[in-house]
Design goal:
two-stranded antiparallel ribbon; mainly alpha; two-stranded antiparallel sheet
Length: 449
């Protein structure tokens, strides 16, 4: 365990923990905004209760996401100072815009939304949560544009021994950034939709607040179906972009060893990296890998043997994370379609109601596997083709990184337990009774928000 490996583990721990909360923030903000808009347009107090109940869960999730995001960014200075010195002119500008524009807007109007139930008109109050939702997603775009530069560096020049910004628009408008943003937020919306459907199903099985949770289920089912299908379509475009820009990642995630034209895809395979082959290869689909990668069945697909061993990503982890992500994505399409068909009367399908609460963790796993593939599959590069991860780490002592790694795990573990306990507690409790939500004094109204 040297400084490089410990720093990578620490950054991975911080990133994966932070990303447990980001997708729900992105997706649930949209659903809460839709629910409150329905209240404003219809005057139905049920939709106001829905906005408050799901908004409470959103706030718990948002708070922990903010705390973990701040510590994550600090690591670029503490653990990856050489990276920051080399590409900070580019990477830092993108994060600065995200913090000073999108995050500031998001946090400001979230505070107004929390404390403004009795102080703003219904339309103005609904506008606040829409601004929160829009700013959250805009914030995600800037962060993902920064990550896209690491995946496919553009818009820079090498000057004075470092990468300097040359074309800001090229970075934020490149195809990789757009596809990565669409893929990430679609995954977030699917997660939020299954989160709402799972909790709603749990209450509907017990006949708790049936009208409330049927309405919640209906909105979430529509979101789940739209974005689970879109996620698969976008994934195809993203895969072709990976094939063009990061062929070693494509070869690793498919465990494809030899360069061939008309490359098949094996439905059953298991990599054996030590011997540069697959220990299991069964049920080939002729030309399928070539078609998925380049749109033609006879295209040439580079194999891992064409790359020096020191330039190959970790094959087994890339292979597994890709298959888990795709397998779960396929499952979500099936479940979302089922939920959509039953959206008017979900209680008519007890099996679906029993399944959905157990499904809640799976979109979290799928999102984490997507990030695993994106980041591990880029190795050994921290900026693909430009800077190796080994050259980016700070010149610090092993003991320093080891100590902070343990501290991160302990603190994040406690934060995670507290956050998920509160989410479970209030999700299980359900919404406040209608008479409380409509007749409470101003102070209690704010507390319920």
């Amino acid at each position: 365990m040297d400084v490089l490996m410990l720093s990578r583990l620490q950054f991975a721990a911080a990133t994966f923990f932070h990303f447990l909360f980001v997708p729900l923030t992105l997706g649930l903000s949209i659903l809460v905004a839709i629910m409150e808009t329905k209240y404003v347009r219809s005057g139905d107090e049920e939709y106001k209760r829905m906005a408050k109940f799901w908004g409470k869960l959103f706030l718990i999730n948002f708070a922990v996401g903010v705390v973990t995001g701040i510590t994550l960014e600090f690591q670029f200075g503490t653990n990856w100072s050489r990276y920051s010195a080399y590409v900070g002119d580019i990477f830092g500008s993108l994060l600065a815009v995200e913090a000073t524009v999108a995050f500031f807007l998001e946090s400001t109007f979230l505070a107004v939304w929390v404390f403004g139930w009795k102080r703003l008109s219904p339309k103005a109050h609904a506008a606040c949560i829409w601004l929160v939702a829009i700013a959250s997603n805009v914030s995600a775009y800037w962060i993902l544009a920064a990550n896209s530069f690491m995946q496919n560096p553009v818009g820079y020049v090498i000057r004075n021994g470092r990468a300097e910004l040359d074309d800001f628009l090229a970075i934020i408008t490149q195809k990789w950034a757009v596809l990565e943003f669409l893929h990430t937020v679609s995954g977030a919306y699917v997660l939020a939709a299954f989160f709402v459907m799972g909790i709603s199903a749990w209450h509907l099985l017990r006949n708790n607040e049936t009208r409330f949770f049927k309405n919640s289920f209906r909105y979430a089912a529509v979101m789940a179906l739209i974005f689970s299908v879109f996620l698969a379509i976008n994934g195809d475009f993203s895969g072709k972009e990976v094939a063009e820009k990061q062929p070693a990642k494509l070869a690793a995630m498919e465990s494809h060893w030899d360069t061939v034209k008309g490359a098949p895809m094996y439905l059953l395979a298991w990599p054996d990296p030590e011997n540069e082959r697959n220990s299991i290869e069964a049920i080939p689909v002729p030309g399928a890998l070539s078609f998925l990668a380049f749109g033609t069945f006879d295209a040439e697909v580079k194999g891992l043997k064409d790359f020096p061993k020191e330039d190959r990503p970790p094959v087994l982890l890339s292979f597994i994370s890709f298959r888990v992500m795709v397998g779960l994505g396929t499952l979500f399409i099936f479940l979302a379609a089922w939920a959509w068909l039953k959206r008017k009367d979900p209680q008519a399908s007890p099996l679906l109601m029993r399944l959905l609460p157990w499904i809640i963790p799976l979109p979290y796993l799928a999102n984490e596997m997507g990030w695993t593939l994106a980041e591990v599959g880029r190795q050994p590069w921290i900026v693909y083709g430009l800077m190796r991860t080994a050259d980016a780490v700070s010149p610090i002592a092993v003991s320093q990184v080891g100590t902070t790694l343990v501290a991160f795990i302990l603190v994040y573990g406690l934060l995670g337990l507290a956050a998920f306990f509160l989410l479970f507690k209030y999700a299980r409790k359900g919404p406040e009774p209608l008479r409380v939500a409509s007749a409470a004094p101003a102070g209690k109204e704010v507390a319920h928000a």
